[in-house]
Design goal:
CATH topology: Nuclear Transport Factor 2, Chain: A
Strand content: 35-45%
Number of domains: 1
CATH class: Alpha Beta
Number of strands: 6
Order of helices and strands: HHEEHEEEE
Structural class: alpha+beta
Distance between the termini: 32 Å
Largest sheet: 6 strands, mixed
Number of helices: 3
CATH architecture: Roll
C-alpha cells in the first residue's frame, strides 16, 4: 500500500535518524536491517587535484555485512564517533513507493588516547563533514535504504577508519 507524501517523508526521516543512532552505537547488523537486499553503499570525495571522485569504500549489502563481521579483527582506533545528522530534503515519488533524501552530517571523535600536544585523551574533535545522498524504498509504512552515497568534504581519513560512516 502506497503512503501519502507526508507519512512517507516521515518514514524516510525516521530511517535516516535510526541509521545515525545504530552507526554511533556500532550496531552494524541493525544498521544493515534498515537496508534493502539490493542496497549499495559508497563513500566518496571529490579531488580537485585530479578532477575526479576518490572512492574510499563501496559495496553491496552482502559485501558490507562481510566487512562488518570482520571489523572486530581489524586494527582500529576505538575512539567513539558521534554523528549529528540533519535531513535537508525528502522527495517522495508520486506513487509513494520510493524516495530520495539529502542530509548533512558532521562526525565528532572522542579521543581515547592523546595523539599529540593539540589533542588530549578525552577531548573531542571534528572528524568528518559531508552529506548523505540516499535512495529508499517505502513499503508497509517503513522506509529502507536502496543506496547511500556518503559525500565527504574531507579528503583524508585517519588510519583505522574503515567502518561505515
Amino acid at each position: 500500500m502506497a503512503m501519502n507524501g507526508v507519512n512517507a517523508a516521515d518514514a524516510v526521516r525516521d530511517t535516516i535518524y535510526r541509521a545515525t543512532m545504530y552507526l554511533d552505537a556500532q550496531k552494524w547488523e541493525d544498521w544493515l536491517g534498515l537496508c534493502d537486499e539490493s542496497f549499495h553503499y559508497a563513500i566518496k570525495s571529490f579531488s580537485p587535484e585530479i578532477n575526479y571522485d576518490m572512492i574510499y569504500l563501496q559495496g553491496s549489502r552482502k559485501e558490507m555485512l562481510t566487512m562488518m563481521r570482520l571489523l572486530p579483527k581489524h586494527n582500529t582506533d576505538h575512539s567513539p564517533l558521534s554523528r549529528h545528522t540533519s535531513v535537508y530534503t525528502v522527495d517522495v515519488a508520486p506513487d509513494g513507493k520510493t524516495a530520495s533524501a539529502v542530509s548533512s552530517f558532521v562526525v565528532y571523535q572522542n579521543m581515547l588516547d592523546g595523539v599529540n600536544a593539540h589533542i588530549d585523551a578525552g577531548e573531542s574533535r571534528l572528524f568528518l563533514v559531508g552529506k548523505y545522498i540516499d535512495k529508499l524504498t517505502i513499503e508497509d509504512g517503513k522506509a529502507r535504504f536502496i543506496a547511500r552515497e556518503v559525500r565527504l568534504e574531507n579528503r583524508r581519513l585517519d588510519k583505522g577508519s574503515h567502518w561505515p560512516i
